[in-house]
Amino acid sequence: MSAAYCVRAVKALRVFCPIEAYTLRAMLSGDASAMERDPTLSRLLNVVRSASPLGDFGIYKSVVEIAPGWELFSPADDAEPTLGEVGSTTRSPTAILIIYVPIDASRQAVDNAIGALLAAHPWEIPVVELSETSLLTRVRAATQS
User: What InterPro entries does this protein map onto (predicted)?
Assistant: First the structure.
């Protein structure tokens, strides 16, 4: 018997969030609670939790996938970097947030949520991607009476 699934159209929002080095170390050692203690990451997670279309899976709310990583960048002469120095390569510990948004979510609600994420992000130019994709979800068996 094959597994029953359906295809759900969504928007995928990927947010690259700078985190403290101690947060990255803790995450890599398995301490997931460190994410809540990180000043920037916790602010962004609070936006996800407060904005209804972000991470809305129907029976699950505020769903966000989080992966540890690094970002490298070199601020140009006219930059005002939050981290690093003009002309030097900077390495930033980063949490990569992937948040799915229902394709039929209100445009205004999505715009408000993205605006809140951008306002909470400390970088001069936050790295945020928005794309359309599909998720495969398991079909729930009908309950028997």
Answer: N-reg_PII/ATP_PRibTrfase_C
